[in-house]
Write a structure and sequence with these properties.
Elements (H helix, E strand, L loop, with lengths): L9 H14 L3 H31 L20
């Protein structure tokens, strides 16, 4: 594990300090969790962007899923 130095706004530090007291944890643990969450959200956004671009480059054809229409079971009305 590495030790790093960060510069943060005073109001942000105050907010973090309040939350870590409530959670009975440390600034470091809270920051590690927050950074992991941010990295996960970033990865999800990247995957969603790739997904959107893929469909933009190769849109679903009108008949692509029509073979399954007869397989649908909607139940009795």
């Amino acid at each position: 594990m590495k030790t790093i130095q960060m510069t943060l706004d005073d109001d942000l530090v105050e907010s973090v300090d309040q939350i870590v007291r409530e959670l009975h944890t440390s600034r470091s643990a809270f920051t590690r969790d927050a950074l992991r969450d941010a990295l996960e959200k970033h990865e999800i956004r990247q995957l969603e962007q790739r997904h959107r671009l893929g469909y933009a480059e190769r849109p679903v054809a009108a008949s692509e899923f029509s073979v399954w229409e007869d397989e649908q079971a909607w139940g009795e009305p």
